[in-house]
């Protein structure tokens, strides 16, 4: 007994009871959540049956927005709206589409706020149980919105056809302009967003082993030459990122490391992506923001080749070099496809095939962004054989490829361009 009392006193001194109290509260909350979920699922059944009854007059569909990753949260949702405007995957009868945020925490609350102004977004605790029960009751598929919210590939080339579905309020626009000035960017000055992927974000937000994505990473220092070239041409260059490993090493006054300077927030992530002159990206989630606001994108260090963005007029891109350890040489475009690495989606896939991915050089990156700048400003001077090199690239490119997971096509009409300077300097690559 004395030992027990002594232990209790010791627990009090160590704050043990506060830990115990927290555990008790957690268990109580967990029990309440289980009871609430069970109750909601019971209530959902008559709701689902009622929706079946009224379906001849009004079809109600459900969809979960992919709210955990900004790329899918932006692109998938915008393409759903574009398909609505085009009448693709769209019911001919009277209907209403209801959405809920399918993942928590939401990756960007400003984007969520803007989607809520455009879509019917209901709380997940209401719709998620209804959607689950709907899948269990026969004939539920017609009540699901479907694949038009599950892909970020514009295979119907709709982004060039329809205007953006999001816009800022006057108050938000004033806030964005004020924040640009706080960052040192004068009103009306052009700026470029630079999005260079590393593993910091996934590791910070999801933990565990995310190395399967490392093949997509790039060294931000390789972009300094390109950023400074653009800055010398009158642009401000804003390095984007929620969480990054290191700052960009440049003292140029027009290069702003927004990812590390303490000014980054959800609102400005969207505002900068929407208002930039163009975006430089490695094919990471953020570039979906300029995409949905119809801003041009220069893709650098893209892999895998089969997923190259092809469907918008104002896209240019280049790929990482593929070095075969076994052959001790860089692979041509044809060899990349023959060796089965054109669609590899994990670091281990490249390793198992003995392929070392080598980043684009600073000069290659600089040449691509200058091409983008000059094309946008009508100053681009093509070389005599640029068109023939471009044609040869697209003849070799797998334009009819499909997604290995869902069987969906990856490309529609080819409208993007491959980097002209890269093709000129690597003619052997097209053999």
Structure write-up:
This protein is α/β, with parallel strands linked by helices. Helices cover 42% and strands 12% of the residues. It is built from 15 helices and twelve strands. It has helices at residues 2-13, 16-54, 70-86, 109-118, 124-136, 170-182, 200-206, 224-232, 266-275, 288-292, 333-338, 347-352, 362-376, 386-396, 420-425, and strands spanning 59-65, 95-101, 191-195, 236-239, 255-256, 278-281, 297-302, 315-319, 321-324, 329-330, 355-358, 417-418. The strands form three sheets. Strands 5-4-3-6-7-8-12 form a seven-stranded parallel β-sheet, with helices on both faces. β6 (278-281), α10 and β7 (297-302) form a beta-alpha-beta unit. The chain is globular, with a radius of gyration of 25 Å. 35% of the residues are buried. Mean pLDDT is 90; it is low at 1-6.
Structural topology:
Elements: H1 2-13, H2 16-54, E1 59-65, H3 70-86, E2 95-101, H4 109-118, H5 124-136, H6 170-182, E3 191-195, H7 200-206, H8 224-232, E4 236-239, E5 255-256, H9 266-275, E6 278-281, H10 288-292, E7 297-302, E8 315-319, E9 321-324, E10 329-330, H11 333-338, H12 347-352, E11 355-358, H13 362-376, H14 386-396, E12 417-418, H15 420-425
Parallel strand pairs: 1-2, 3-4, 3-6, 4-5, 6-7, 7-8, 8-12
Antiparallel strand pairs: 9-10, 9-11
Helix pairs in contact: 2-5, 8-13
Short précis:
This protein has helices at residues 2-13, 16-54, 70-86, 109-118, 124-136, 170-182, 200-206, 224-232, 266-275, 288-292, 333-338, 347-352, 362-376, 386-396, 420-425, and strands at 59-65, 95-101, 191-195, 236-239, 255-256, 278-281, 297-302, 315-319, 321-324, 329-330, 355-358, 417-418. It is an alpha/beta fold.
